[in-house]
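DM from R.C. (forwarded with permission)

"hey, sorry to bug you on a friday — could you get me a structure for this? deadline for the figure draft is monday and I only need the backbone to look sensible"
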Amino acid sequence: MNPHRIRVIIEFALKCALTPQSLEAEDYDRVRDQGVSDEELVEIIFIASFANMTDTLADALKLKWIRPS
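My reply, with the result:
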């Protein structure tokens, strides 16, 4: 695994989840420069948005975290 590639992907995913309106062509290019295909890019965006949605849902429903035993 390439740590730089992983960092670029995680930074992109965080930006997708936290400030998607700030995404620019350079953000997509930076990820693609790491060998990420368009299909993988869509998957990264989906996972980031799904995680964000589940956090919002859990917060809005006041769900409590139950630690596994």
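R.C.: lifesaver. Residues 11 and 27 are 9 Å apart (CA to CA).
me: no worries. The chain has a mean pLDDT of 95.
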